[in-house]
Amino acid sequence: MTETDGGFRETGAVHIWHGRVRDRLPLSDLAVLADDELARARRAGGVPSAHYAGVRAAVRRVLGDHYLGLPPSAVRFGRHACPRCTDPAHGRPRVEHPATPLDFNLSRSGPYWLLAVTAGAKVGVDIERLDSAVGVADVALTEDERARMRGLEAPEQRQELFYRAWTRKEAVLKACGVGIFAELESLEASPADPGPVTMEYSESGIAGRWHVQDLALMPGLVGALAQDAGSVRPVVTGRTALLASR
Predict the structure, then answer these.
(1) I need a surface site. Which of 7, 176, 192, 230 has the fewest CB within 10 A?
(2) What is the pTM of this model?
(3) How many CB atoms lie within 10 A of CB 110?
(4) Closest listed residue to residue 233, CA positions, set 18, 67, 16
């Protein structure tokens, strides 16, 4: 019995998977990818190619082996219609085959990846590697968030606040299905609050309240999960997947 048929129906949980892929490209990863994924991996070249292909293969193995009861190569992905323009070319990702109530959301940063899986609800995740590049704060933070960041003396504190805000915002936007095309500086993430926090996002035709929590990942990584604030589900973490690069 797959977890879609059993575990989700009983618990209504959100399962969090994460892992790291290799810097080289095993043939076993390529063997499970679809043609469009193979083409994108080849265009990337070198280490980025290995990271992209490894992550896509890992996600296929998680979904196929643990939820859908299919070989990873048999899972077919599509997209929901974009909430802005109804174009399915850039909506939220979905499992197109087999028919399933599963909802999932994927984020990756270099070789690291983060995957949320649930059924019958929208979720969004974001993962980022900590580094010193916080120069985009002016276009990513609200005025209050920028003021709080300037009030911190230690560089590592400013870095932590920035990435907490960034990952929370990205998780919400991905749950909504609009991605980073939204104006991040108008979305309040309350990064000084350890959370969970409730975030509101609205624009023409799109509105929602989101329950957002930070995720404990390996050192040097920051992650966040967003789910509908009106029906918050228990979160099962620690599903570190050692499934890539078999």
Answers:
(1) 230
(2) 0.91
(3) 16
(4) 16
Question: How confident is the model over 26-65, as pLDDT tens digits?
Answer: 888 999 999 999 999 999 889 999 999 999 999 999 999 9
Domains detected in the chain = 7-237 (3.90.470.20)
49 CB-side CA count, 13 A: 14
Residues paired with 38 in a beta bridge: none
- Report yes or no: 153 and 182 within 8 Å, Cβ to Cβ: no
Q: For tokens 């609050």, what's the residue?
A: 193
Sign of CA dihedral 176, 188, 211, 230: negative
pLDDT of residue 207 exceeding 60: yes
Residues 6+ apart with CB under 8 A from 18: 112, 113, 114, 115, 127, 217, 218, 223, 239, 240, 241
